[in-house]
Amino acid sequence: MASNLRKRRDISAIDSETINPSFDGSGDSSLAMSESSSDLEMYSKEVLSQLIQDNLPPTPNNFTLYFDRILEDKSETLRKQINTVLEFEDNSDDEKNIELEKSLKSGFNSIKSVLQVTATVYKNIALMGKILVKRREELMLSSGSAGVLSAITSLDQDIGKLNNILKKQVDHMKTLYQDTACIVKNVDNETIYDNQFGVYNKRYLLNKLEQEKNLIEEFKHTSSLITITLSREIEESISSQKALLLMTRTIARLLLKTSRRSDVVAHYGSGIFVMLLKHTDTANAKRASQRLCELVSTSNFFLAEKEIQLKISIGIANISTDRSVEETLVCGLNAMEHADKHDDEDYCVCNKDEETK
Q1: Residue 337 belongs to a domain with what CATH number?
Q2: pLDDT-based confidence at 142, cuts 50/70/90?
Q3: Is 223 found in the same domain as 177?
Q4: For residue 229, which of 282, 265, 274 has the smallest C-alpha distance?
């Protein structure tokens, strides 16, 4: 789908600020927590009321979506209070699956390393055998002691036996490695995490977009997606692939930092990211895009003695029931390419969605 798009690349981590509440047992601390709980309760009632008003069933997913969306318009104080409480919640199932994927891949890499070390040992023993053969031939040509020659011959035979045993073991390890590689490949076909950028992968994104399209068809709400990439201007000015990769990773971190819990941030491929903005119309998608562009523009990147101001290009598309997920993605990608070619546009809305507004 993106074969006509130029190749892209990735970024250094930016940690989000964490608010750590203090629990010292004092009356002030207890009062603060009590007020936070009270604010959270009132806010939750407001979210539920808005769901009912918008004719949406108060399911856990819908509640989470509205919880995050409405919170954006609240005061900074209330957002901090509620986010403090939310930090104590357990990780989601997706986050646990991601940790499992990381552990599995790390274990596979360890097995691969063991095989490589074993293969090196095998090569060294084989080399030792060749050296012994050479030395024995040298002794046979000289007038050396027959006893020394006999000892060398005996040692050569022993190393030959050891070499044969080790060869069988290495072959067995290769078989085990191939079996493990097959298992890991099967698991990888079901993964949801992109190791390189620390976000969801394309497979997970397509699945979530399809789910959202079905929900829109059922409940008639509006959702959008935005496609993001490092500006062409920056890519063409940087010759170092490593530096471009670090920049792209920085973009990924910023996307995670600014996204709501209900948003899906994924790597589409070639350094292009996609954010699924649930229950978000074009106007709000523009606002989110503008905030993201402003945040990225304040994140400078240092390359040797040179300071580079990061810049991104964003495409916006509505998730429509009248077109496939792939067609919607193409709309977003085309809008992103348009914004990327025009220096005065940080983001652009898909033409088809502009016409239907």
Answers
A1: 3.30.70.270
A2: low
A3: no
A4: 274
- Based on the fold, state whether residues 346 and 202 are members of the same structural domain: yes
pTM of the model: 0.69
170 and 120 fall within a common domain? yes
- The end-to-end CA distance of the chain, in Å, is 26
Residue 43 sits at φ, ψ, to 5 deg, of -65, -40
Question: E strands, 9-131, where?
Answer: none
Q: How far is residue 21 from each of residues 25, 43, 79, 90, measured CA to CA in Å?
A: 12, 20, 14, 17
Domains: count for the chain: 3
Q: What is the dihedral of CA 84, 90, 92, 98, to 10 degrees?
A: 110
Range of the domain at 122: 96-188
One-character DSSP codes across 19-36: ------S-HHHHHHHHHH
pLDDT tens string 268-311: 999 999 999 999 999 999 999 999 999 999 988 888 778 888 99
Place of tokens 């069933």: 57
Last residue of a domain, one of 168, 188, 208: 188
Sign of CA dihedral 35, 41, 46, 50: positive
Which of 151, 172, 188 is the C-terminal boundary of a domain?
188
Count the Cβ atoms, other than its own, within 10 Å of residue 206: 16
Burial of 79 (0-12, 13-18, 19+ CB in 10 A): middle
Residue with tokens 């994104």: 205
Query: In angstroms, rounded to a whole number, what is the distance separating the alpha carbons of residues 271 and 253?
Result: 13
Judge whether 217 and 270 are in contact, CB under 8 Å: no
